[in-house]
Specification:
Number of domains: 3
Number of strands: 31
Strand content: over 45%
Shape: globular
Number of helices: 6
Structural class: mainly beta
Largest sheet: 6 strands, mixed, barrel
Oligomer: single chain
Distance between the termini: 49 Å
CATH class of the largest domain: Mainly Beta
CATH superfamily of the largest domain: Acid Proteases
CATH architecture of the largest domain: Beta Barrel
């Protein structure tokens, strides 16, 4: 009889974190050898793409590529097409569990990963089709870089300067004036306590691959009527294995290890299972107000509040769309939302936004965050039939 072990591949999904896992018989996840690359800077510039995804440059087996930083990724994850392009074929067949079901994947050994001045030799990676996620994010997703980087160095992230630095954990001096937080580790995920809507603290998965602020598991939010009483909207979430509908709410008060926030957008999962079932997850939006230092190999982090007020990016159109070449495909419209009031419907194809044609590079242009503008902003969207519809952005939940 085979013994199956669960491995979190990553929580970087289209709309909300909701783990992906692999099932293989006694999976051989090797511990890589870590070395410093001489004459290379430990500081890595990164792009905060659309305000919620950290893209940096690195390499896999010597091939330079863009990578998404994801602290919730238990194994570095490659897009299947990229893996084939660099010669990774005929790996061990495994089954990846996503938010919408299972999906075939492959596991590869003895891979070399480089980021900044860090070289990880003999690493294990997983290859899976990330094309659906790439459409939701708005650009190719060749590599999701996670567990190996965080467990083998101290990672300091400056969101204002858009730089991160890597340091050896041994002999590392804590940043002056920062608050140290002890984390709970379970398997390949770390948890931080948060209090939601005045409730007692609950463990929340720490996940920089989640582009939002909060994701709350079905078991937890259904056990607390405070969440059912909040005004809500609907959207889609998922990626690997498919998409599913979920609710979005605004949590009036959140406390994270002594730091308080008001009006925090959150996703309420509709699925029973997941890596944080019965708990929650905190995403990148919760950490952008801080200078963040991570020593996950020793189950700790430091938080140092910056001088800017906390502003949580939120979707204000009421549409869930995927970028499909020369148009946005509207897959969901939330009832009562600005898009709904403007007459937009599921199945519409949007070919221009405020006169800017939709194309593969759309999210690199001036309309990259067009659905997340200030309330009251009027956006003219052009449909494939030539009709132009005006959508007035609003906080609709």
């Amino acid at each position: 009889m085979k013994c199956y072990k669960r491995i979190a591949l990553g929580a970087l999904l289209i709309a909300a974190a909701a783990g992906v896992a692999a099932q293989v018989a006694e999976p051989p996840i090797a511990t890589p050898a870590v070395t410093a690359i001489a004459n290379r800077s430990a500081t890595i510039p990164f792009e905060l793409y659309r305000g919620n995804r950290m893209f940096l440059k690195g390499s896999i087996n010597g091939v330079e590529t863009a990578m998404v930083l994801d602290s919730g990724a238990g194994v570095t994850t490659l897009d299947k097409a990229f893996a084939q392009k660099i010669g990774l074929t005929n790996g061990q067949k495994i089954s990846a569990l996503g938010t919408g079901g299972e999906q075939d994947a492959e596991l590869f050994q003895n891979v070399t990963i480089e980021a900044g001045n860090l070289r990880l030799s003999g690493a294990t990676v997983v290859a899976i089709d990330l094309s659906q996620i790439a459409k939701g994010v708005g650009r190719p997703m060749p590599v999701i870089l996670g567990h190996e980087l965080f467990m083998n160095s101290v990672v300091a992230i400056d969101f204002d300067a858009k730089e991160m630095s890597l340091s050896p954990s041994k002999g590392f001096a804590a940043p002056i004036g920062a608050k140290e937080v002890k984390l709970k580790r379970e398997d390949r995920l770390h948890y931080i306590p948060v209090s939601l809507a005045g409730l007692p603290p609950v463990d929340a998965a720490f996940d920089l691959g989640n582009g939002g602020a909060l994701s709350i598991s079905k078991k937890y939010h259904e056990a607390h009527p405070e969440f059912a009483a909040l005004p809500h909207a609907t959207s889609l979430s998922g990626g690997v294995g498919g998409l599913h509908e979920m609710k979005m709410v605004t949590v009036p008060k959140v406390d994270m290890v002594g730091f308080g926030f008001e009006g925090v957008p959150a996703n309420l999962s509709a699925l029973q299972d997941g890596p944080y079932e019965g708990r929650a997850a905190v995403g990148i939006q919760m950490f952008k107000p801080f200078r963040l230092t991570l020593d996950l190999g020793n189950d700790r982090l430091w938080l140092q509040r910056n001088s800017k007020p906390a502003e949580f990016s939120r979707e204000r159109s009421g549409m869930f769309t995927l970028l499909e070449g020369d148009h946005f495909n509207v897959l969901h419209v939330s009832p009562g939302s600005p898009a709904d009031r403007a007459g937009l419907k599921k199945g519409d194809r949007l070919v221009a936004v405020d006169g800017v044609r939709v194309g593969p590079g759309f999210f690199n242009g001036p309309q990259a965050s067009w659905t997340r503008g200030a309330p009251g902003t009027e956006i003219a969207v052009t449909k494939a039939d030539g009709a132009t519809v005006k959508v007035t952005l609003a906080n609709y939940y």
